[in-house]
Amino acid sequence: MTTRAYAADTRSGQALLSVRDLSVVFQRHGEQPFAAVDGVSFEVRPGQTVGLVGESGSGKSVTSLAIMGLLPARGNRVTGVADFDGTDLLKLSSGDMRDRRGKDLGMIFQDPLSSLNPVVPIGVQVTEVLERHKGMSRKAAMPKAREMLDKVGIPDPDRRLKDYPHQLSGGMRQRALIAMALACEPRVLIADEPTTALDVTIQAQILQLLGDLVRDSGTALIMITHDLGVVAGLCDEVNVMYGGRIVERGLRHDLFAAPRHPYTHGLLGSIPRLDGQRGEPLIPIPGSVADNLPWDHACAFAPRCFQPIDVCRSQTPGFVEDGASALRCHNPVGSPHGHTAQPDHAEVNDQ
Amino acid sequence: MLRFIVRRLLQMVGVLFVLSLLLFIWLRMLPGGTVSAILGDRATPESRERLTKALGLDEPLYVQYWRYLKRALTGNFGASTGVVPGRDAFQIFIDRFPATIELSFFAILIAILLGIPLGYLAARRRASLFDNASVIVSLIGVAVPVFFLAFLLKYFFAVKLGWLPVSGRQSNIDATRVTNFFVLDGLMTREWDAAWDAFKHLILPAITLSTIPFAVIFRITRASVLEVLDEDFVRTAESKGLTNRIIRGRHVLRNALLPVITTVGLQVGGLLAGAILTESVFSFPGIGEALASAFSHRDYAVLQVLIMASAATFVIVNLIVDVLYAVVDPRVRTR
């Protein structure tokens, strides 16, 4: 993929969606409150693709659901600001938010089959968004729905309008979901693991499609994924999340060239590389999120880190911003305390 | 689809044939018998023998069955010996069937019109007071014996308060008969008082008969809606900013009702069991009451016709449900 036209102005310009200090605390009756998202801030500009990367339980999906206002009505507390073009989405009433979803903010989900209504034809599932937000009749919306299916690369759209989800292939289902999310030309699109349930070849097609759509329409794209390959192919800026907080931020090239947080480093080290030595072992990150320390007075990642120092277990690392990049780490990779022999990730794994 | 329906109807013929054989043997193995039922205990051996011979019950079972089958294929199911002595058994079925259909229709209507909305509301307000209360009520609905409830309703609303008639299908009024569905007849002939009267006679039996189907439909709807509410496509619908009305109707209910349709079908099939008790308590002249009466008279001909007809109804209702299912669920259609 070539460098996109928007890449230049992603570093400047007005943010379209600005998330500041977003926290989501889940509290079930009689249980300890649990902060799934803990002070997350990031921005996305028109035409920019921002990645939220992390493993299961890092809080990336909860972040997106909170922005969309799709968290369950009870059992959680959302604080912070999600400034969308001057409006704080988190302060909107549920009715006002409903007016925005599908119109200003679109979302696509991980599993295209279960995310589509099995007993409603694809065409109706596309037109219902247009009927809702554009005040079109079903009849008037059909040609537009057909156009959307065509635009996302679904062959024979006339037939597919009448088809049911089970009659489509996995890739086509995801394309249909994208068509629904983009029907009203939202200015922000949130893609939550959009390629995880798809074949590798289809994954590439869908990423290509999303990339093209963002470039052509200037949509701001928030890409939520655990897959650094997706990030490498699509994102301008990457936010690596761990334990509900952003631990590293950087432009794609910088981050891949020189990951500074040991977690980012570990994520990169656990991807198989075609240009690596044959038989070279993958380096997994040991342990799981269950080992996390509380952020209150430690680094949550410390138990799984390959180069922890004493302060990692006694003090919360601050979030230090430096231009486009930012880091939350006491002992970054390549710092004086760090290991001398570092695995080399100097090459950007560009697609 | 047509092939599917034809195949199922052919299967039904097989089912009915096997059932007719088993039923024939089983009925004749029941203690007592037609002769004792007609003549009583103090009849002389001679008169018993004469009647046995006259009814053809002295011959070996397979001969009796063969004769029965041959006649049945020409539409002759024998004469009643007890319910309405001498009347053609099939005619008794024809006389009684509309009453039971009418009763069952209203009962299932009540069960559906209450069960589905309440089940949906209970699911939407999971763990609320309303949810808990309606789950308990539905449990009571299943647990209370039908005949007990029947007596209770009859005692309060018919005997004590006198709001509704105690028994029967219609008061002794002059009403024109067209279809033998009394309410429908009254509406068709514009004899409003006759329709209203027949309707009033239906209320208590229909409520009684509806309790179990209501409770089952309610619980299945509730469970099904709870399941669908957690589905990804409901979240997708929310992410599109659709109105609550569309999300509830098109996305939640349409999917949640699939298992409910199956349940309604099974409940319709099972209504006859409840109808036997309900019709007996309310002296409602339908199939159920005729069955009870035929049993006590050991009226083989009538029993055979009624049980076979019930079985056929059950199979046909299930066929309708399967066809309906294919209509609402596109995944079944293409399979």
UniProtKB/TrEMBL annotation, chain B:
Key word Transmembrane present: yes
Keyword Cell membrane: yes
GO biological process: transmembrane transport
Pfam families, alphabetized: BPD_transp_1, BPD_transp_1_N
Keywords, comma-separated and alphabetical: Cell membrane, Membrane, Transmembrane, Transmembrane helix, Transport
Membrane topology type: Multi-pass membrane protein
This protein's GO CC annotations: plasma membrane
Residues in ABC transmembrane type-1 domain copies: 97-325
Subcellular location per the Swiss-Prot or TrEMBL entry: Cell membrane
Transmembrane segments: 103-123, 135-157, 198-218, 256-277, 301-328
Gene3D superfamilies attached to this UniProt entry: MetI-like
PANTHER family according to UniProt: DIPEPTIDE TRANSPORT SYSTEM PERMEASE PROTEIN DPPB-RELATED (PTHR43163)
Family to which the UniProt record says this protein belongs: Belongs to the binding-protein-dependent transport system permease family.
Listed name of the protein: Dipeptide transporter membrane component of ABC superfamily
Lineage: Bacteria, Bacillati, Actinomycetota, Actinomycetes, Micrococcales
